[in-house]
Batch of 3 targets.
Target 1
Amino acid sequence: MSEQNKQEPVAFDVVCDDCGGNGLDQHNQNYHCAACDGLGYTEKRLYTSPPANANAGKPWMGLTNNELQLLCDEYRILFGSWVTDFAYTIEAKLKEKNSDQQVSSSYLL
């Protein structure tokens, strides 16, 4: 990765190695977990956005009819052709929007 594309963290957080809590003493910057009195910690770097290559090479994964059926059941929607048409139209639009490529689909209006 080139230096230009390398992101710098915008902040740091600390997480207790024993319980996952945090408790940085603001006065002297010593770590002391308020939840379990632990002294060991792991530093966590925080970024404004995921790395540019986070999804590089990852193929688009659409929903299957079975997954659509389960979602319809969960939200008490009658599963039918209009639901699949609507879902696949949304998928095509998202794919187009997130991949910067024109999607050729009969679902797009």
Note: The longest strand covers residues 11-16.
Target 2
Amino acid sequence: MAGMSSFDPKFTIASIITEDLTTIERAHGFVEAAALSKEWIHQMEARALILEAHHTTHTKDFEQLCPTTNRRTLQRDLSRLEELNLVHRRGGARQSLYSLNNKAL
């Protein structure tokens, strides 16, 4: 490979790229620092008891039981419970039906 020059790119990092990289880095830091708070765990335990009492529950049922919590937060919480294998979800979108995973208890 005699006679070949090394690759030497010339580029400039524009301010918009710097801003976007900063936004990504902040989001990454937030996700890394996020931990399950004791309050969140307590709320999830209460919601799990509701599931156990009702055997199966739709998101709209949780909305009625937790009127101060918005729908999107409830959906995220239920998704997290599903990730932790504490509940099973059947169906999709507004027809999701959640049931307690008794094997996880």
Note: The two ends are 65 Å apart (CA to CA).
Target 3
Amino acid sequence: MPPSPVSLPQSPTAATNFVALLGFPNALTPDTYGAVGTNMLITMLNTGVKFQTRGGASVYSNSLISFWTSTNIGSFFGVFDPRVAYDPFNDRWIAVAGVDADRYRCFSNE
């Protein structure tokens, strides 16, 4: 028997808009990703991460490397190509990014 449907909050009207996360003008590629959950949205760029309510109020904002460093996963030099998705079936966020632990390899031509 399928589970009963979950009541979700209403989405903002089409006229509601707000700025999510601005990248740096000189960033080579912003690699923009975002996902909307039941109560908030998360935006990830190569330069940063921002959590906002569905109405646009900022809840958390940090650089991409500081966001991952705060998870206590170890040390690395470069963080890039972030992705984020919302899993509505388990009410959770899934975020990933590439890393380069070797600062010298990050800029090599190999």
Note: The radius of gyration is 17 Å.
